[in-house]
């Protein structure tokens, strides 16, 4: 069990305010209050706040100084010789990174040091553009953005910085968009386009787990889902099969990775995020598949390279699930849920393969109901309110979707709303009674 104290400043400030109240009410005595004060170093809060304020003032002053220098240089930029311009650019780059490392490693000012290193990453991008201007280098903008992303990603890995990694992720997506528009018709370049989602999840997902950073992990999954959708759309040619299959597999990878996160102590914080995002993506595809209109388009597609990230993601997801079951074997109840989850995924792929205007929507609806049952059963077994209500909401969405899809009278639709509303209230009352019977806190 981890015995590390919570050193969060907000928690310590709240604790400092609560201790006198606890002492007056007799919850703890003065000796215990003194031990807590010493253990959490509550007397140092005021001096720490003063130091933080002084650091913020110094950082603000440094930004103003830097802004003044940049304004002066900009005013005289055209008159400066090329060599001096290059020296100034590299001096600014090395100055920000060097000062950041020095403050972080030598002066123990980690936050200020990391902030300066992040500023150095911004300067690196500006330097790329200015050097191209100095030497009159012509080319596509996305190429420079790609070089900026690589340099920033290298720095993010070097110092384990989530802020720099997020910047690199945004830049890499900008590069991807530009590269996609310029090379979509070349097979060699298409290979790089198709493998981009794998690179995103491998480089940024691994870094997020090492830092660790929930913000970076969530952003990585969003970028992964979007890039997988782009990969599917690239090979679609008005067919639902490529985008549907790629997104289903992307959701499967997130769910399987979430199960592995849950089975690993130092990554358990990512489990709810990964599983929730995977569930949302798969259910989104399932709801689209439950309608009959999407199945009226062609089932043919010209591009086959999208199968590469699809199979790679499927294999990685299978390996992640296998490893998670080794580290944390499933109990009988969870085995049933995993079986139901696998069957729902299989039904979604069967709907894609069949691609029939009647059979495919039917399979899509059954698959969505399977997902809803997984969530409801998980909520009942584990006392997980979010899982239960996610499943219940999915069921009601399916019911309402069918009423809006078919041409029914307004009276019948109003009746559907009334039934769904009453059913929601009744389900909530019964579920809360179930939780009270299990002794789950409100």
Distance between the termini: 26 Å
Global structural class: mainly alpha
Order of helices and strands: HHHHHHHHHHHHHHHH
The beta-strand count equals 0
Principal-axis shape: globular
Query: Gyration radius, to the nearest Å?
Result: 27 Å
Overall pLDDT = 82
What's the helix count?
16
Largest sheet: none
Low-confidence stretches: none
Oligomer designation: single chain
What percent of residues are in strands?
A: under 5%
What share of the residues lie within helices? over 70%
Task: Give an account of the 3D structure.
By secondary structure, the chain is mainly alpha-helical. The protein is built from 16 helices and no strands. The model has no long low-confidence stretch (mean pLDDT about 80).
């Amino acid at each position: 069990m981890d015995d590390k104290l919570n050193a969060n400043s907000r928690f310590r400030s709240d604790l400092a305010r609560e201790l006198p109240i606890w002492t007056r009410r007799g919850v703890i005595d003065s000796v215990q209050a003194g031990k807590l004060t010493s253990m959490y170093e509550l007397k140092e809060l005021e001096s720490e706040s003063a130091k933080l304020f002084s650091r913020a003032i110094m950082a603000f002053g440094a930004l103003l100084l830097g802004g003044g220098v940049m304004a002066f240089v900009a005013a005289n930029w055209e008159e400066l010789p090329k060599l001096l311009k290059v020296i100034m650019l590299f001096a600014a780059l090395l100055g920000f990174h060097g000062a950041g490392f020095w403050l972080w490693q030598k002066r123990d000012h980690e936050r200020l040091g990391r902030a300066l290193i992040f500023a150095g990453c911004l300067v690196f991008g500006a330097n790329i553009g200015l050097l191209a201007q100095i030497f009159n280098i012509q080319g596509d903008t996305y190429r420079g953005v790609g070089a900026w992303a690589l340099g920033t990603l290298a720095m993010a890995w070097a110092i384990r910085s989530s802020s720099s990694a997020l910047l690199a992720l945004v830049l890499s997506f900008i590069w991807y968009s530009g590269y996609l528009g310029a090379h979509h018709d070349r097979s060699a370049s298409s290979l790089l386009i198709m493998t981009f989602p794998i690179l995103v999840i491998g480089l940024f997902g691994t870094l997020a787990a090492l830092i660790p950073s929930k913000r970076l992990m969530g952003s990585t999954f969003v970028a992964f889902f979007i890039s997988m959708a782009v990969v599917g759309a690239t090979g679609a040619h008005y067919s639902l099969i490529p985008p549907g299959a790629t997104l289903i597999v992307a959701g499967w990878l997130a769910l399987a990775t979430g199960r592995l996160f849950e089975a690993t102590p130092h990554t358990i914080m990512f489990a709810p995020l990964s599983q929730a995002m995977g569930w949302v993506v798969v259910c989104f595809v399932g709801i689209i598949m439950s309608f009959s209109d999407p199945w009226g388009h062609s089932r043919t597609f010209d591009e086959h390279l999208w199968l590469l990230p699809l199979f790679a993601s499927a294999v990685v997801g299978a390996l992640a699930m296998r490893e998670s079951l080794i580290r944390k074997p499933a109990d009988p109840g969870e085995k049933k849920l995993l079986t139901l989850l696998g069957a729902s995924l299989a039904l979604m792929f069967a709907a894609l393969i069949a691609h029939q205007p009647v059979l495919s929507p039917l399979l899509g609806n059954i698959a969505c109901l399977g997902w809803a049952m997984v969530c409801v059963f998980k909520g009942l077994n584990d006392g997980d309110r979010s899982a239960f209500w996610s499943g219940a909401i999915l069921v009601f969405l399916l019911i309402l979707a069918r009423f809006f899809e078919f041409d029914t009278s307004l009276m019948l639709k109003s009746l559907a709303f009334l039934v769904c509303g009453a059913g929601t209230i009744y389900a909530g009352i019964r579920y809360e009674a179930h939780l009270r019977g299990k002794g789950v806190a409100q």
